[in-house]
Design a protein that fits this description.
Layout: E1 3-6, E2 11-15, E3 29-34, E4 40-45, E5 51-56, E6 60-65, E7 71-76, E8 82-88, E9 94-99, E10 104-108, E11 118-120, E12 127-133, E13 136-141, E14 145-150, E15 155-160, E16 165-170, E17 176-181, E18 185-190, E19 196-201, E20 212-215, E21 220-223, E22 229-234, E23 240-245, E24 252-258, E25 263-268, E26 277-282
Antiparallel strand pairs: 1-2, 2-3, 4-5, 5-6, 6-7, 8-9, 9-10, 10-11, 12-13, 13-14, 14-15, 16-17, 17-18, 18-19, 20-21, 21-22, 22-23, 24-25, 25-26
Length: about 280
């Protein structure tokens, strides 16, 4: 397993976590990707791990080749920083991006055109997170609404959460969405009727964009916290099953789970330089 990271230093780095715990500087570093002019805010990787997309404060969307570290595409069109990105379509043929400009834009990876193939302008504030599953795009916005775009039916559905949304992730079966918000609550929402199936509390999230993740085949919820800890809950019961110190009382801003290896990685603002440290820990 390898870990791809983006940082406020404008770089993207690929690490081998098996070699990242050496005392030597830069240990575990496999490749560095440089093109962004501002901080990198999100990364998404294709299922075959051959390409990835990155977005950030420079208002652009980049498509990369993992092996060669070359940029394959560079799309412009957003009017504010781009907060989130994901792949959709057949074999990752479409890149979806969400921005501070309150829009969601779809980009065709196979076309030579630099213009988006579709633009959604339903949000009333910054689009903070998105997740693509099949023909559906789920987005979370600072306006406190969870939106579902059904591309097959040409419909959009919205549910009011009531607090700024920092993270969204659909369950593997596509029936529910995990939603993190700035009231220090993570909610599991039913996609069919907008009802809350379960909530997860105990962490702190009132000021920063903190992302949560489903793990172990959607049996647990893992989230960072503004106190630097990682919190883990049982999905069905909503009970906290474990907490651990991961980022020395700094913000643990993101977690990502690898179900095939039963491992997860977390990122946070450790140290004075606010350069993320990444840890892969077996659950």
């Amino acid at each position: 397993m390898e870990i791809l990271t983006g940082s406020s230093d404008r770089s993207i780095r690929l690490y081998n976590p098996a070699k990242s715990f050496s005392a030597s500087v830069g240990s575990g570093l496999v490749q560095t990707y440089s093109a962004h002019g501002y901080e990198v805010l999100d990364i998404s990787v294709t299922e075959d791990n051959a390409r990835f997309a990155s977005v950030g404060g420079d208002k652009q969307v980049f498509l990369w080749d993992v092996a060669t570290a070359r940029t394959l595409k560079r799309w412009s069109g957003h009017f504010g920083r781009v907060n989130c990105v994901g792949f959709g379509g057949e074999e990752g043929s479409v890149v979806v991006s969400g921005s501070f400009d309150a829009t969601v834009r779809l980009w065709d990876c196979k076309s030579q055109s630099t213009k988006p193939i579709q633009v959604f302008e339903d949000s009333k504030d910054s689009v903070s997170s998105l997740h693509v599953l099949g023909h559906e795009i789920v987005t979370g916005s600072v306006d406190g609404k969870l939106r579902l775009y059904d591309l097959r039916m040409g419909m959009v559905y919205a549910d009011t959460i009531g607090y700024p949304i920092t993270s969204v992730q659909q369950t593997a079966d596509g029936n529910a969405v995990l939603v993190s918000t700035l009231d220090s609550v993570i909610r599991l929402m039913d996609k069919s009727n907008g009802r809350m199936l379960q909530s997860y509390k105990g962490h702190t999230n009132t000021d920063y964009r903190i992302r949560s993740s489903l793990g172990l085949r959607d049996s647990i919820v893992v989230s960072g916290s503004e106190d630097g800890k990682i919190y883990i809950w049982d999905v069905l019961e909503g009970k906290m099953v474990e907490t651990m110190i991961a980022h020395e009382r700094k913000v643990a801003s993101a977690v990502s789970c690898c179900n095939s290896r039963k491992e997860w990685a977390s990122a946070g603002t450790d140290g004075e330089e606010s350069f993320p440290k990444f840890r892969a820990v077996q659950c």
